[in-house]
Amino acid sequence: MKSMxxxxxxxxxxxxxxxxxxxxxxxxxxxxxxxxxxxTFAHTSVxxxxxxxxxxxxAADGVVFDAGPVNAHEVWEQRPxxxxxxxxxxxxxxxxxxGDMGYTSGPYEVRMTPDADAVAWGHFISVWRRDAGxxxxxxxxxxxxxxxxxxxxxxxxxxAGGGAEMRLSLNEGEIxxxxxxxxxxxxxxxxxxxxxxxxxxxxxxxxxxxxFFRNGHHPIVGRETIANTPAVVDAVWSxxxxxxxxxxxxxxxxxxxxxxxxQAETEAGSPLLHASYYRIWKxxxxxxxxxxxxxxxxxxxxxG
Length: 304
Known about the structure:
The chain has 304 residues and is an alpha+beta fold. It has 8 helices and 14 strands. Strands 1, 2, 3, 4, 5, 6, 7 and 8 form an 8-stranded mixed sheet that branches. A hairpin with a 5-residue loop joins strand 13 (272-283) and strand 14. It is globular and about 50 Å long. The model is unreliable at 1-22 and 265-269 (pLDDT under 50).
């Protein structure tokens, strides 16, 4: 696999654009508007129906992870207007320096009717982009299931990972270079996990305060906790196949997703398992991309 030294020349020149830097005030406003968009999305799901909310708030090319990454509108248009109610609330959020891309995460619950008790819980992870009119739209959304959780929909939302260093906006060529570098890092991370395992890959690729999401677990927070969580480190996945990479206009925040495979040892043999991987990356002060969110969403086998 490529060493980190081989990857570094692929990084964009982030400080050469003539556009001005963002300010603390604009960052705070961008973050607040993203959090409000998430809360409005969640409120619409409860008051007007989950299907309609997803169709309203997702970008036309936004994806969900339903047997792999698929177009959200195609999925939700096939679902009945009347169905279980999905409620949620953000607990963390972050936004790019350009204010054009961000992500949110928090607990969710499922109720068969608005007045019924919750029957399922988990955590969602959503990536947002601003459209041409400046409105936040969901670009990707996935999640994991786990035991009961408290929503806290109106609680204070933590900024994940803290603020980045002040950066200049990028021109088109620099954005393309940043996207290429992100793809290389994603491929190298997948390959490293496949060949060496998660523990050996954490220092090179994962942010110290990263959040990992696995079915059956509340968020696994921090590199040290991740390294001591069997649900993460005992999994042996193959090299991943990337479907897409999304990057902010400032080149400091990105998202990648695709498919990975695993061989599960059982008494009946070694069936091939599939899962969607879904990662959010942030570029750090050392100009390296680091994973801040890592999600695996198992794909249920069909047929048989």
